[in-house]
Amino acid sequence: MKILVVGHGGREHAIVRRLSLDSPAPEIHAAPGNPGIAELATVHDIAVTDHQGIIALARDLAIDLVVIGPEAPLVNGLADDLTAAGITVFGPSQAAAQLEGSKDFAKSVMHRAGVPTSRSVTVTKLQDVEAALDAMNPSGRVPYVVKDDGLAAGKGVVVSIFKEDALDHAEAALSAPGGRVVIEEFLDGPELSVFCISDGTTVRALAPAQDFKRAFNFDQGPNTGGMGAYSPLPWIETESVLDEVVRTVAQPTVDAMREDGTPFVGILYCGLSRTKQGLRVIEFNARFGDPETQVVLERLASPFAPLLLAAAKGELDQAEPLRWHDHAAVTVVLASEGYPKSARKGDVIGGIEKAEEFGAHIIHAGTARNSRGELVSDGGRVLSVVAVGESLEDARSRAQMAISHITLPGSHFRTDIAQRAAAGEVEA
Q1: Where are the domains of the chain?
Q2: Which residues contact 22 (CB under 8 A, 6 or more apart)?
Q3: Residue limits of the ATP-grasp domain (predicted)?
Q4: Distance CA 62, CA 412 (A)
Q5: Residue 173: band (very low, low, confident or very high) from pLDDT cuts 50, 70, 90
Q6: Which site among 9, 84, 112, 317 is 20 to 30 Å from 323 CA-CA?
Q7: pLDDT (tens digit per residue) in 43-59
Q8: Which CATH class is domain 2-91?
Q9: pLDDT in tens, 291-307
Q10: What is the pTM of this model?
């Protein structure tokens, strides 16, 4: 089988790495890829925005399956263009990808499908924001939650105890042409991420993970695209929770999308809060999440390529049951100086071989080669260090030890990824 993975980040490197571990492994190509992906696949210098270039490449290589990693090309209709060209693709259509492209759209689908989620209101005018905040936070209950309606790379959300922060974020979002914000009630409870693979009819849930959005230890600092993740979650009963997610969230959503004439084929990322009232959806994404993909795929024991192909061809009900390794997996993100507000680029990265001596592997997210062939930073989240262990504490210790040997001027990483879960301090 020949597979083309579209994208250049950590998620795509994790996908390529897991595909390479299949037996037999498919022939893997990537566009545009990154230095880490280039060690496992043939990379092609074609941007994710160049739909015709990707189509031509897939045809020239006689690609059997295109896997689209990032959200932007999905929302911009790359899957539609590939399908129209007769190319099999794993990833939702532009219409279906609106589950991520518009939080207002996602809320409307959830409400129609009876999916449990938070109360919310969509606002398009600045003068309506304060009243909406008060409605979602009666009697001054905090924190306030304000979300950009569109794509924001995981950083379009403000959760703050200060109304001024919420108002400022709403003003910034509404000042853009066509700007809208979704104001929600805060969901109190530990969060988890569940990737559900769908062929438009059948749904299967992958192993759950928990990610860490805040930039600094103990959930301090601004939101990021994700600073680390772990799997499994010792504070839930996995099978019953996954059954509940499929039954109450993913299957009703996939059914509603199909009934609307916009079948969802790909990964429905369910971001959830385990509240005292039960599971509630925080958000949907239309693709694998980063950095959760790194730990979820690290634990996948059954073949990956046939699973993606079955979903893309509408044959997920015929795919073999999913199998999982018993080990725990933890990933920790190394971020560049200034992230998430800015990203310093061009600094030389060292110590990767030393880090790998601790049994970890390194996922490239924002890296490049300079004119001298040196590996340098090229984004906000630069690397993910992934480690496994018999226990969560073992995995997190290995990950922390490994990442401490990587050098990148001004970089930072969290040292508390999975710490509370490993200590049994997360209450479901």
Answers
A1: 2-91, 120-184, 191-422
A2: 303, 304, 305, 306
A3: 107-313
A4: 42
A5: confident
A6: 9
A7: 999 999 999 999 999 99
A8: alpha beta
A9: 999 999 999 999 999 99
A10: 0.95
Strands of the sheet with 144-148, listed across from one edge: 120-123, 181-184, 144-148, 157-160
324 beta partners: 300
pLDDT for the residue 427 = 82
Q: What class has domain 120-184?
A: alpha beta
Contacts of 278 (CB under 8 A, 6+ apart): 116, 244
Per-residue pLDDT of 352-410, as tens digits, reads 999 999 999 999 999 999 999 999 999 999 999 999 999 999 999 999 999 999 999 99
| Band (153; pLDDT cuts 50, 70, 90) | low
Contacts of residues 346-349 at CB distance under 8 Å and 24 or more positions apart, as own/partner, are: 346/370, 346/376, 346/377, 346/378, 347/376, 347/377, 347/408, 347/409, 347/410, 347/411, 348/374, 348/375, 348/376, 348/408, 349/375, 349/376, 349/377, 349/382, 349/383, 349/406, 349/407, 349/408
Contact 59, 85 (CB under 8 A): yes
Q: How many C-beta neighbours within 10 Å does residue 375 have?
A: 19
Q: 3-class secondary structure for the chain?
A: CEEEEEECCHHHHHHHHHHHCCCCCCEEEEEECCCCHHHCCEECCCCCCCHHHHHHHHHHCCCCEEEECCHHHHHCCHHHHHHHCCCCEECCCCCCCHHHHCHHHHHHHHHHHCCCECCEEEECCHHHHHHHHHHHCHHHCCCEEEEECCCCCCCCEEEECCHHHHHHHHHHHHCCCCCCEEEECCCCCCEEEEEEEEECCCEEECCCEEECCEEEHHHEEEECCCCEEEECCCCCCHHHHHHHHHHHHHHHHHHHHHHCCCCCEEEEEEEEEEECCEEEEEEEECCCCCCHHHHHHHHECCCCHHHHHHHHCCCHHHCCCCCECCCEEEEEEEECCCCCCCCCCCCECECHHHHHCCCCEEEECCEEECCCCCEEECCCEEEEEEEEECCHHHHHHHHHHHHCCCECCCCECCCCCCHHHHCCCCCC
